Amino acid sequence: MDVMVTEEEDDCPELVPIDAPPARPAEQIPVTIITGYLGAGKTTLLNYILTEQHNKRIAVILNEFGEGSALEKSLAVSQAGELYEEWLELRNGCLCCSVKDNGLKAIENLMEKKGKFDYILLETTGLADPGAVASMFWVDAELGSDIYLDGIVTVVDAKYGLQQLTEEKTDGLVNEAARQIAVADLTIINKTDLVNEEELARIREAVRSVNGLVKIVESQKSRVNLSEVLDLHSFDSKDGANLAEKLQLVKDTRPHLDKSILTVTFEVAGDLSEDALNVFIQDLLWEKMFKNKEGQPMTVIRLKGIVSFAGKAHQVMLQGVHELYDLNETPQLWGENPRINRLVFIGRNLDKNILQEQFISTVVEGAQGN
Ligand SMILES: Nc1nc2c(ncn2[C@@H]2O[C@H](COP(=O)(O)OP(=O)(O)OP(=O)(O)O)[C@@H](O)[C@H]2O)c(=O)[nH]1
Ligand SMILES: [Zn+2]
After folding, report:
1. Which residues fall in a coiled-coil region (predicted)?
2. Is 28 exposed, middle or buried (0-12, 13-18, 19+ CB in 10 A)?
3. In the structure, which protein residues have their CB atom closer than 6 angstroms to any atom of ligand 1?
């Protein structure tokens, strides 16, 4: 990877033992992960963001690790403007050196040296699993980091996106392009100049079929309204009201492509048992205990919900990325009666009826079997 500031920094950041987490600073710096398949337009987007008018000091990190030839790839982002003078160029590979903490240490070291940035953009490699990158920020947030994950933006190639999405993987692995869309908070369908209306509609539909929750915008040369990309607060429990509204609009998606990732959503009235919900989620995410009718294990890549616990006046937000999940009380009070729990699951081999029945019988208080 490269982090940029003018001076050279060769050392990989050191691992620091975590015993006493520092007090959470008043102001945390948002990180936006920019992902997307090879050549979709990620770097073009970074360039665009850097050169657009904004009053932010932005640090860009290229996570090119693992791409071999990319190791010596110099930074492709704009040379113009004064932004550069603040940047430090870390040696390639540092972000991903080995363990998760390394990447964060690199950023934290950078901030220590150069003062705070207002914003951090992280471009992953085209083949990266952004969920893994996202979880690293998430874990760190709980350790009192200076930075927080604002959102995951996935750039999709309007021309080749469909082909990339349908590519069959051996070993039944989930294809990277689909994975990247599954975890996205925003998808930018880029290079619309290369397709006609019909092709555009097809790729839009394919994106939607994977992720029923994601916001979709279209662009040429990755030119998008910055307010649609930055400060999404996608994981922020303060935005609970917003999420509750959004979840109401989510619909189940149909598997567009064979064995593809899809979205299922359901609503259930009543209060949940917090313990039972934890068990349910862990069985689902960690133990992969739930199977579809064909006996294949359900795999969840992204999870969101607004849930109600008995005796709690506030709505609780559920967020999950891969195997990590989080339950956080939101400032939002329950208004409706009965309270309606809303859950959205994005993943593979998901069977809505089986999930919902399991949820109702084990998690909803006062339901059968509980
Ligand atoms: N025709 C067309 N070309 C585009 C558009 N956006 C980007 N490109 C070109 O597509 C190529 C790849 O763009 P990049 O921004 O480097 O893509 P990337 O996702 O960063 O690529 P990798 O980091 O290699 O995965 C470049 O040659 C861009 O100039 C667009 O809207 N239309
Ligand atoms: Zn790039």
Report:
1. none
2. middle
3. 36, 38-44, 126, 155, 190-191, 193-194, 220-222
**Global pTM value:** 0.79
Residue 28 dihedral angles phi and psi, to the nearest 5°: -100, 155
Query: Ligand 1 centre from 38 Cα, in Å?
Result: 9
Q: Which residues fall within 8 angstroms of residue 301, CB to CB, at 6 or more apart? A: 131, 174, 179, 182, 183, 261, 321, 322, 346, 347, 348
Contact yes or no for 60/46 (Cβ under 8 A): yes
Predicted-complex ipTM score: 0.98
Q: Which residue's alpha carbon is nearest to atom 32 within ligand 1?
A: 191
CA distances to 135, 139, 301 from 323, in Å: 8, 11, 8
CA of 41 to the centre of ligand 2 (A): 7
How does pLDDT run across 47-57, given as a tens digit for each residue?
888 777 777 77
295: left (phi over 0), alpha (psi -120 to 50) or beta: left
What lies within 8 Å, CB to CB, of 117 at 6+ separation is 29, 56, 57, 58, 59, 86, 110, 111
42-79 pLDDT tens trace: 989 988 887 777 777 777 776 654 333 333 333 333 33
Residue 253 contacts residue 348 (beta carbons within 8 Å): no
Best of 34, 37, 44, 63 for a ligand 1 pocket test (most atoms within 8 Å of beta carbon): 44
Residue 370, number of CB atoms within 10 A of its CB: 13
